[in-house]
Amino acid sequence: MTNTYKVCEVKAKLLKAFSALLLLSFSYSTQASVILGKTRVIYPSQEKQVTATLRNLDEQNALVQTWISSEKDNKSIVPFVITPPLTKVNAKTSQEIRIAYTREDLPTDRETLFYFHILTIPSQDPELKKLKLKESIAIKNVYKLFYRPESLKSSLEDTVQNLKFDISNGLQIKNNTPHYFTLRDTTLLDSDGKSFYLGRLPMLAPFSTTDVKTDKIDLTTIKSVKFAYLNDGGREVKHSIDFNQQ
Question: Residue 212: exposed, middle, or buried by beta-carbon count in 10 A (0-12, 13-18, 19+)?
Fold first, then answer.
């Protein structure tokens, strides 16, 4: 009887722990956390500062830390200051923060890419407190920040025609512009109207060449390409290029 009781007691504890983990997973997997008002930040070099809007879509208050890095996964030193870098954003509200450029030298003939990080530490769910769980899950979102020199007078819409798709020796995309381009739903079309979906490609850096794998595609039959690129507001803009007119 004693052994049976102990086995049942262990099973009960395991079931309780498993239930707690399920609740923890459900509670935080459905959280929206704090997000940026736009999918990207554009910083014109002539501006003393720009604002970014933090939106808390959650049902609970959150403590939010923000910072900018030159690489996606680190905390490198960059020529920007965020005010405030640590702030509280109440549930279902928005709050603006300021980003100031410290005027250190950056390229003037092209955009420079940085990453804007938002680390959200939500208030603990009341149901988790009842279970005496002390874990707090931090949620991190990363966005792109583009520093744009004043000398760049053209826009993405003006320069998208300068993207060149070269199929003479495999597929190469040449970005002959000073802007970064993010392409989505890239699709090649042949002379018979058959389409070959390439999906989302790596972001195209200014004045760069990107090789794209097309092992199973006969490029000699390809006549055009269609894709969508993200504009300054983060919205998709559809575009197509006829290879005979490049």
Answer: middle
- Token duo for residue 168: 């003479």
CATH number of the domain bearing residue 202: 2.60.40.10
Strands 40-44 and 139-148: parallel
Residues 42 and 142 placed together within one structural domain of the fold: yes
How far is CA 43 from each of CA 78, 114, 147, 230, rounded to the nearest angstrom? 14, 10, 5, 16
Same domain assignment for residues 99 and 171: no
Residue 70 Cα to chain centre, angstroms? 14
Mean pLDDT for back-to-back runs of 10 residues, the chain (246 residues): 42 39 37 84 97 93 94 85 95 96 94 96 58 60 96 92 93 97 96 91 96 93 96 95 84
Which residue's entry shows tokens 């005027």?
103
Which residues, 6 or more positions from 14, have their beta carbon under 8 angstroms from its beta carbon?
none
Contacts of 67 (CB under 8 A, 6+ apart): 75, 82, 85, 117
The residue among 148, 175, 209 that closes a domain is 148
Domain count across the chain: 2
Q: What is the domain extent for residue 169?
A: 156-245
From 211, 142, 152, select the one nearest 180 (Cα to Cα).
Answer: 152
